[in-house]
Amino acid sequence: AISADAIWSPENGVYVVGPGFSIPAGITLTIERGTIVKFNIATGGLITHLEVLGNLVVNGTDSDPVYFTSIRDDSVGGDTNGDGNSTSPSPINWIGIIFRSGSSGALSHGVVRYSGAFDGFYRAGVFNYGGNVSIDHVSFENNFQADIYQQSGTTAVVRSKFDYDNFAIKIDDATFLTPRRKT
With the CA atoms of 129, 131, 135 and 140 taken in that order, what torsion angle do they form, in degrees rounded to the nearest 10? Predict the structure, then answer.
């Protein structure tokens, strides 16, 4: 976990997240354009995810999105796990980004891929269990079962792309906002 507000930027290289990583309540993690975040594939039953109890701000751009992907994804950030071509990414390599009650997220111009390992409830790329989340220009690629799982809280999605097997968005007893298009 981080213990103070933090900014991640591409100048620091690829960020590799291991099991148990979280953003505590009252803390903000800002991720700048072009940053790559890879999730380690853990052993011993611990599956990696990003748990948000505080605030997550993703500031990508059209030309420099922020990537959330598997450590096995060599297409961005290179061969981070140092295994050459012996492994390749697949859905369920990591759980996803999980927003908890009271958290907030503003994800702009990002890519979420190869997630959807079972978290105990469902399989998706982004989970909302009581947060206030906005998703704008985010591309969901090669995630398992669903791209967004909405159980409680509020999620607003605009101008995003879904590449899914079963559901783009799975909603259970929640508020999900989609803006109406002006005519």
Answer: -20
